[in-house]
Amino acid sequence: MNSSKHTELANHAWSVADLLRGDYKQSDYGKVILPFTVLRRLECVLEPTREKVAETVARFQGQDIDTAYFLRKASGHSFYNRSDLTLKKIAADPRNAAKNLQIYVGAFSDNAREVLDKYEFAQQIKRLDGADLLYQVIGRFTDLDLHPETVPNHNMGYIFEELIRRFAEQSNETAGEHFTPREVIKLMVNLLIAPDGDALQVPGVVRTVMDPACGTGGMLSAAEDHILSLNPDATVAVYGQELNPESWAICRSDLMIKGQDPEHIAFGNSFSDPAHRRDRFDYILANPPFGVEWKKVKDEVEYEHKHMGEAGRFAAGLPRINDGSLLFLQHMISMMKPVDAKGGGGSRIAIVFNGSPLFTGAAGSGESEIRRWILENDWLEAIVALPDQLFYNTGISTYFWILTNRKSPDHKGRVVLLDARDQFQKMRKSLGDKRKELGKRHIADVTRLYREAVEAAADPDHELHAKVKVFDNSAFGYQRITVERPLKLRFEVTEETLTALAAAKPVQKLADAEAFVAAVRTLLGSTWATKSECLVSLKDAVVAAGLLWPTGAPFAKALREAVGVRDPEGEVQKVKGEPEPDTELRDYENVPLGEDVEEYLKREVHPHVPDAWIDHTKTKIGYEIPFTRHFYVYEPPRPLAEIDAELKALEAEIQALLGEVTE
């Protein structure tokens, strides 16, 4: 089925909006169109076995037994409908449309009815009936051909996604929160599963796939299709969790129709209520929303971080509250299968991120500690940079992170960085922020380069050598050192320092504060090179005024802060015989992990500030992945003569145009 057919069917469904206009706000159209599309799809799927189900219902009529097993068997699916009603029959009886539709929906099996309940379908039926629109809406959908032989499951996903995109536009939401472009999913699944191609062709192989932010289920379907394309006899079980009720309902109904267990798709928040917490999976993939805060689940996440430690998911650290991306990754890592003694088992993970998780957070921050945990455990296999403007809700640059706890020998201890930012084709028509797409050739080329990454990086003659680099894990680590310089002061009494002295709280607390300041004022204009000389002069002036010299550490500190003035040539201040650091001159340096920091100080700092030293008690280990820096290519500016010639040509053109106007 081509894209024009998808659009045609989506247009048919969305044409119901013409009926709703006036009685419904535009932002509410999807609340009617989406559940009716799901209902019509379920009806079309069940149509071939309708008579068989009716016979089964009649056979067990009046018997006190659970008929669910027999009805599922008769329908050929994990769901069924016991009624002899259809949408066409209901539309033909407008007066009883609401009552009959309620009966029809109630006759579905519990799992199918639960899907419709998430749309609050009963309320929509009542509202449509009150507006005298129900039978008209039903009539529109009876003409919509969604039979599997006309619209295969894979293509049905495109129709749902198109409807969700339109719904999101009308309600001012972002479609990217619900689904990911299919070509992006295709590439992601290729990179996730590519290294396991041989293992997946073993007869009777069983694989589990998990998406903790599954949306409409596009990634799960693509992963299942990819595995089955490698081995049609493979058994693939998919699992997921979704917070958005409409997306959850579509995903669940899609899996029901495909014969997957719909109970595997849980509804709820993956952070506060993880449905598959005790399960482990072969493949885990996700496209969590970018830059979404996790304030709503703050209490649950922080409790798990503080009290569960390694037994929980978030022991490594917590990112800043306004971006939960790295929480999703930790959640996914917690669901990896362990690797057994023979190297079997293990899992592979793929997740879509924006650029923030690569470098946000200084050494010691939650983000840095999460990156450190991942790299020191040697789980990060690769990061792939994608073109910008690939997604519906954002034009920013995005990246695939590929992780595994069973790296191949040539990847152990190393990370691949692959630059695929130039692998795209322009779309003929933009969809939201999406102006670029990955063509089949781009997907094939990136997949091939990913397989050959280590060899391509090592071979300068490889055609794509410049697009891939391989680094040791430690290359992304650094030591954040604190470089101190001594506090140097000269001491003076000026109007400015006197004002500061009078405003100091320890001075204001003196019984004779005004007389004390007046005594110091007699030294106005005096300057001393050392603190001891200054103190002697000040004490003499105060005693000469008939006052006692104040004591105590707070007073001594306030006095020095008032009359002491920073001076590069001033006296070095000391505390317990050691130079006192000047907080205003404090600086920080990032030193590559493994490098001697004292050697770095001598080489990079001492030539400029010989008296600097490192406060080793403040040194922190950090990790960041500066992807774009590693692929930066310097482009020299154009020669000045060329720019000058261009400016003169433009000036001449402007003069010519002005001449035409004045003639």
Explain what this protein looks like in three dimensions.
- With 663 residues, this protein is of the alpha+beta class.
- It folds into three domains: 3-171, Ferritin, CATH 1.20.1260.30; 182-473, Rossmann fold (3-Layer(aba) Sandwich), CATH 3.40.50.150; 488-572, no CATH class.
- The chain is 43% helix and 15% strand.
- The protein is built from 28 helices and 21 strands.
- A nine-stranded mixed beta sheet has the order 3-2-1-4-5-7-6-8-11, with helices on both faces. Strands 12, 19, 20 and 21 form a four-stranded antiparallel beta sheet that branches. Strands 13, 14, 15 and 16 form a four-stranded antiparallel beta sheet that branches.
- Helix 11 (153-170) packs antiparallel against helix 14 (245-258).
- It is elongated and about 115 Å long.
- The relative contact order is 0.07.
Number of helices: 28
Mean pLDDT, to the nearest integer, reads 91
Gyration radius (Cα, Å) is 35 Å
The global form is elongated
Domains, number: 3
The CATH architecture term of the largest domain is 3-Layer(aba) Sandwich
What is the C-level CATH assignment of the largest domain?
Alpha Beta
Proportion of residues in helical segments: 40-55%
Q: How is the CATH topology of the largest domain named?
A: Rossmann fold
Q: Report the major sheet.
A: 9 strands, mixed
Low-confidence stretches: none
Can you list the strand order of the major beta sheet? 3-2-1-4-5-7-6-8-11
- What's the β-strand tally? 21
Q: Quick one: CATH superfamily of the largest domain?
A: Vaccinia Virus protein VP39
Enzyme class: transferase
Family: Belongs to the N(4)/N(6)-methyltransferase family.
GO biological process, one term: methylation
Domain N6 adenine-specific DNA methyltransferase N-terminal: 9-141
